[in-house]
Amino acid sequence: MAKQNTSDLLENLKSLNAPQLRRLLIEQLTKQKLGLYWESDAIERDAALNADVVLPRLIPDASHTPTGTNHHRNLIIEGDNFDSLRLLRATHAGKIRVIYIDPPYNTGNKDWVYNDKFVGANDRWRHSQWLEFLYQRLTLARDLLTSDGVILVSINDENRSRLELLMDEVFPRRRAGSLVWRTKDTGNDLSQRFSHVHEHVLVYANAGFKFNGRATSKHKFRNPDKDSRGDWSPQPLTANKTLVERPNTYYPIQNPETGYWYPCDPDSTWRFASEKEIRKRLDNEEVAIQAALGGLRSDTIEQLIEKKLIYFPPCSSSEVMQFDTKQDLLNAISNGKGPTLPKKKTPLLREDLPDLDFWVGKPIAAGRPSRKELWTSKPESERLAPLGSWIAGMNEQVDALEEDEDDEPVVLRSARGGVATDEVKNILGSKAFPYPKPISLIKGLLAQATTPGDIVLDFFAGSGTTGQAVLELNAEDGGQRRFILCSSTEATTKEPAKNLCRDVCAERLRRVMIGYRDKPGYSVAQGGEFAYLQLDKIEAADIAFDGKAQHAVSLLCMREAAIAPISVEDAEIHLIAKGGDWLAVLCAQIEPETVDALAALPSAYGVTRLAVYCPRPKALAGLLTDRGVDANTYSITDALLEGQVSNNTKAVDIVPEGASA
What we know:
CATH class of the largest domain: Alpha Beta
Family: Belongs to the N(4)/N(6)-methyltransferase family.
Strand order of the largest sheet: 1-20-2-19-18-3-6-8-7-16-17
Distance between the termini: 55 Å
Strand content: 15-25%
Catalytic activity: a 2'-deoxyadenosine in DNA + S-adenosyl-L-methionine = an N(6)-methyl-2'-deoxyadenosine in DNA + S-adenosyl-L-homocysteine + H(+)
Protein name: site-specific DNA-methyltransferase (adenine-specific)
Number of strands: 24
Shape: globular
Domain DNA methylase N-4/N-6: 96-483
Structural class: alpha/beta
Enzyme class: transferase
CATH topology of the largest domain: Rossmann fold
């Protein structure tokens, strides 16, 4: 019996015979797992999934190339973003530090296209198509991230749960958390008296990623005890674990200089282990004790006291409690007169606590000890306040998280969603794009997620807000961030000439770079340039015939130098990239004069080795060897296939061993 797709089986369920029904049941019982499941076998798969090769074609007239520009660092790619991601996987794998996307929200209002059709609320497979659509793209995007890279994804509340499970599937064990953004002041759905005014930004990051946080100042570091090591800040000694949860860190602490004792809070035990308690628990078995101490990740409380890193607050003799008999102690506890926490006034000793006899006759001090964090114990670059998960309004009062508090999280601030429509209109003169994100939101996220030399990718670029955010950040801190924006034309049969990528995204970035309008705050030229690329899809078997030199020049520049050329006009030799002692070039034809020109390149560029892409690499290698030129030669066809069609790909690495690009 020929193998049938699940979709075919579902359509003909009544006519299935016993073996077919058994197979369908087995499939359904065995392939489902805990987590997200969608009917990927029952829907028409994304038409963008194919086995052809995607090649970039530079469009100089649509690019922005100011006078004096040597190459394009920023890229705008027109086309289906699945194809754009396939191209980028072949050119930028492991090079993208930050990805931000604002994908379609699957609202049912025909706000996105799947297989050339708008998906509406009544589509039977609406959610499955949306998940499949994003799954294929996120899987490609995952391979683009650096080892410390991060992806930030905007989503509405309705689809957050589905997308989060999908992200868990694509980025396992990489969930960092989420941020909450208030998009508007009032909701418009009052049927349930429930106001939908928030969206979310999901954060999934590789192991090496950290948000930038905010540098803390020294004003909270003081030196009340005249410590010779300088200023310090008091840090809590307790953890959020109870006596029941962590009995091994429930013990008394003594100030060795005064002899005063401090009880442990049974509801919040000490943060550090005690060597004395370890010895007691292990019955003084020295081998086991040393093994336990060796497994600790921090000093014991005894070591901290010996290093004078525990601060015992001043305590006068009148504040000291002492109970001569156990009955005196029990009476004090019963009458609420026993030791308490200074601020909360909750009791530190209770009748049901272990070792209550220990406290009979002991001088018990008021106050609580703390750990000293010396200002000199960390480099200033590591003394940072973290990013909080709340994105507040521009003028919103956030009493609990004031931004000038060094020990509180950084609070991002963003304008409401409606402001973004006016931002686009101020630049382009019309309401050119529905539901854009405000520049303050994306700029705030990138300010926390990027460093000055990062590449930022947005493969649902829309109106180009991410690109503008990158430009404005660079203008503020002198950074060299670069953007890659992927956008489709959104042309339809009714609007065949529509080109969102060229006329909205690219045009917006062009105007931002050169300055626009005459309104305050909108006329500053941010500077910059970008290459505008279109995509050509060619069958792998036809690459040798249909792949052009201009395809190879653009692709190799993207792959080897993360740039795009200024032009791809016919030339004997195209410069691709230059390293410390090597030069990579492409020559479309091997003629005697071309070989002579290649042989002259090492001395002209001050290098010792060449990497040459050409139609006949073996023949050219011999010709250059005869001229005494140290060169590696590669096939242009192989280079065009690399990273896209694995069966036809040969390993190509133009960077000589031991060199760096």
